[in-house]
Write a structure and sequence with these properties.
The chain is an alpha+beta fold and about 375 residues long. The protein is built from 7 helices and 18 strands. The protein folds into 2 domains: about 190 residues, Rossmann fold (3-Layer(aba) Sandwich); about 160 residues, Translation factors (Elongation Factor Tu (Ef-tu), domain 3), CATH 2.40.30. The strands form 5 sheets. Strands 9-11-12-7-8-10 form a 6-stranded mixed β-sheet.
Length: about 375
């Protein structure tokens, strides 16, 4: 049982023990923090250990800080340096919780790995044979399948999600029933390795950027920016985020020309698009054909949108039934069935309408820029 020191994993551990499992609790030591950006991991580990002691299960701390640095933190910064917007929580689940840890604890010969994620696994009949599928949980408001699409399909039969059929309020009630020391603890916020810190702060400490220009789509210069790597698609630009050259209405990032260090801005309506391409695909279900319909999601908590997907050797072309706001290269796109099964996911690579905006701006500036 992966124990983070939070209420969800604490209740999950109690449920497993009640169900008769021989439970071992594990705390992952990943991000250790720095002098500038400290991490309260000692407090989280202490809370997790207190729960394990109370319910009477063995508890271990596994040091995966080197793997964290290499497979999550370095990739996170490399993505931003390339002008993308990666999601470190997805990397954390795929590379650390369901890969590095599993390999590290093989000497215990575990049968299953369990977490406090709000997700569920069920038996499904596929094209090949009966398999285990990953599904949305009962509490759709806490659905965390978005962060799990990168898990290897072969591992699904070995994963248990004890909270899959519970709501968050029900988990809180159980925590009080079990009299857990984490019962009243607030949910953690922020990305997986910097906790509550603002992402922009730590990015500014590591990224190499240079100032550039902010243009409207017709080529008019309206502001100066601090480096395209510091901005993301759909971000509203206001006082303090850029150095404005004049009075302008609220504008949003609609495209990023990383090669030329330019930001292109427009209205909120200009952030919407209907098509994208994606790669680095991971399928968690059998696919009926190379072209199929599914419900798609491009960010956590975004509502599902009907889409048509063409799969050409794991390079995906996706067309949404209606335009979607702020499709962002580097982020993930997930595909669901009508019954809530997570079919798979991929990394967004290009957005045709954004590339077209970059091309039009380059053409508009060609006569005036040297």
């Amino acid at each position: 049982m992966l124990m983070s020191g939070g209420v969800d994993s604490s209740v999950a551990a109690c449920l497993l023990k009640e169900q008769g499992y021989d439970v071992l609790g594990f705390y992952i030591l990943g991000w250790l923090g720095t002098a500038e950006f400290p991490c309260p991991w000692q407090t989280e580990e202490k809370d997790a250990r207190a729960v394990a002691d109370q319910i009477g299960i063995p508890f271990y701390t596994v040091n995966l800080s080197k793997e964290y640095e290499r497979d999550v933190i370095d990739r996170f910064f490399a993505g931003y340096q390339a002008g993308l917007t990666p999601n470190p929580d997805i990397l954390c689940n795929r590379e650390i919780k369901f890969k590095a840890l599993w390999q590290k604890i093989r000497q215990f010969e575990p049968d299953y790995i369990a977490t406090g994620h709000y997700a569920a696994t069920h038996q499904v009949s596929g094209l090949e044979r009966s398999r285990i599928g990953l599904f949305k949980p009962k509490d759709l408001n806490k659905d965390q399948t978005y962060f799990l699409w990168g898990v290897e399909r072969e591992l699904l039969p070995k994963i248990i999600f004890p909270l899959g059929e519970l709501t968050k309020p029900e988990v809180r009630v159980l925590a009080k029933k079990y009299q857990l020391p984490t019962a009243s603890k607030k949910d953690s916020q922020g990305i997986c390795f910097v906790g509550p810190l603002k992402v922009r702060q730590i990015l500014a400490s590591r990224l190499k950027t240079k100032p550039g220009s902010v243009f409207l789509q017709d080529g008019r210069l309206v502001a100066n920016h601090s480096g395209v790597e510091n901005y993301t698609i759909g971000q509203r630009l206001a006082a303090g985020t850029v150095d404005w050259t004049g009075d302008v209405p609220p504008l949003f990032v609609v495209a990023k020309d990383v090669k030329n260090n330019r930001l292109i801005v427009g209205t909120d309506a200009d952030t919407y698009a209907s098509e994208l391409t994606a790669g680095q695909v991971n399928w968690l279900a059998d696919l009926p054909t190379s072209s199929f319909a599914a419900l798609a999601k491009i960010r956590y908590r975004q509502e599902d949108v009907s889409a048509t997907i063409v799969n050409d050797q794991n390079q995906l072309s996706v067309h949404f039934e209606r335009p979607v706001r702020a499709i962002t290269p580097g982020q993930s796109i997930l595909f669901y069935s009508q019954t809530g099964q997570l079919l798979g996911g991929a990394i967004i690579e290009t957005v045709e309408s954004q590339d077209a905006k970059i091309t039009r701006l380059s053409q508009a500036l060609q006569p005036t820029e040297v």
